[in-house]
Design brief:
Elements (H helix, E strand, L loop, with lengths): L2 E5 L1 H6 L6 H6 L5 H4 L13 H14 L4 E2 H12 L18 H28 L2 H4 L6 H9 L2 E4 L5 H6 L4 E3 L23 E2 L12 H10 E3 L5 E3 L1 H29 L4 H10 L6 E5 L8 H5 L6 E6 L2 H14 L2 E6 L6
Parallel strand pairs: 1-3, 1-8, 2-5, 3-4, 8-9, 9-10
Antiparallel strand pairs: 6-7
Helix pairs in contact: 4-6, 5-11, 6-11
Length: 339
């Protein structure tokens, strides 16, 4: 039987390791609560940083405004006018489109990078090998780990290697010994371009007086009465469009630098899971949150899933996720293995 085991933070918590976000925050009560207040949930509780970070970025992207270059050009012409040669009397245009979004995203990216460094230092101090070699281990967990063909851990600690002596663990988000990388795989769908950079066609203008006036601003007539785009206006239009498109690309690149480039191990894991087939999957200590949906979705759906849960409060939500993923599953309380 080919077995895949997926480990989440509940695994470390079940071994009484202080790896929760709340325990980290309280390790420096005069600094961390204020410094990382952005990652505190609206209900006043400390949520999973990865999930809340992804939610906030998606909200920022969802609130962006459509950027019609035609309207921007018309506003600039209205403000600055045309010179004697029919050129826009304005030079060195640089679009400020998406500036607010960029700054909001930059703030969270920088804050998350600081969190990674502080959290890594905290885990090294509280969950190093000197601590892990003394923790109580569990035979039921040992049997699962030893029988596994592959182990994917979302944790940064080396609990599996040090406490259980099991090697070749795939730390999908890094480890305390190397680096830790927090991000979200839920942003690709939100990265939709909102720049209308197409030079306005004749059909775009209405047949009324106002529409014909607009049309005259973008098109001229040749000697045969055929319309053609005004060279200077088209050139300026393309300059404005290029500037706005470039600024939007900077927003997307900023997201990718944290959520793709820093998560190459995660991307590689998802790709490899899609090429493998498992007879059974154990899920221990993972809440099945939205941030990691793409990882579980890559697993073959005809497998048998044994999912361990902490409390009845979380069980129903985990079951809904497993159903939406299309798995046949069995829910088992943590008490069955942590004893």
């Amino acid at each position: 039987m080919k077995i895949l085991t997926i480990i989440g933070n509940g695994f470390d918590l079940g071994h009484r390791l202080p790896t929760s976000f709340d325990e980290f925050i309280q390790s420096s009560p005069s600094v961390f609560p204020k410094k990382y207040a952005t990652f505190r949930g609206g209900d006043g509780t400390w949520k999973t940083v990865e999930s809340l970070y992804g939610e906030q970025l998606c909200e920022i992207l969802a609130e962006r405004s459509w950027h019609d270059i035609t309207e921007v050009v018309e506003q600039i012409i209205s403000d600055y006018g045309l010179n004697e040669y029919g050129e826009v009397d304005y030079f060195g245009f640089s679009s400020d489109a998406f500036e607010d979004e960029y700054q909001a995203i930059q703030f969270r990216v920088d804050l998350l990078s600081e969190f990674e460094k502080d959290f890594q230092q905290y885990l090294r101090a509280t969950c190093g090998d000197a601590v892990l070699c003394k923790i109580v281990t569990y035979n039921n967990i040992r049997r699962i780990l030893n029988a596994s063909s592959r182990i994917i851990s979302f944790n940064y600690t080396s609990t599996i290697e040090t406490a259980y002596g099991v090697a070749n663990v795939d730390h999908i988000h890094g480890s305390v010994e190397t680096f830790i990388a927090i991000g979200s795989g839920a942003l690709d769908d939100a990265k939709e371009s909102l720049v209308d950079a197409e030079y306005p066609t004749i059909d775009k203008f209405g047949r009324d007086k106002h529409g014909l006036q607009e049309l005259a601003g973008y098109y001229d007539y040749d000697d045969e009465g055929n319309r053609y785009p005004k060279v200077f206006i088209e050139r300026f239009f393309n300059e404005v469009a290029a500037s706005a498109t470039k600024r939007e690309a900077e927003v997307f690149n900023l997201l990718d630098a944290k959520n793709k480039d820093a998560l190459t191990s995660r991307i590689s894991t998802i790709d490899s899971l899609g090429k493998e087939h498992y007879d059974r999957v154990y899920i221990i200590g993972h809440s099945l949150g939205d941030a990691d949906y793409s990882v579980f979705d890559a697993i073959n759906k005809d497998t048998e899933v044994i999912c361990f849960y902490y409390s009845e409060d979380t069980k129903a939500e985990m079951e809904n996720t497993l159903k939406s993923l299309g798995f046949q599953y069995v829910m088992v309380q943590n008490a069955e293995i942590f004893r």
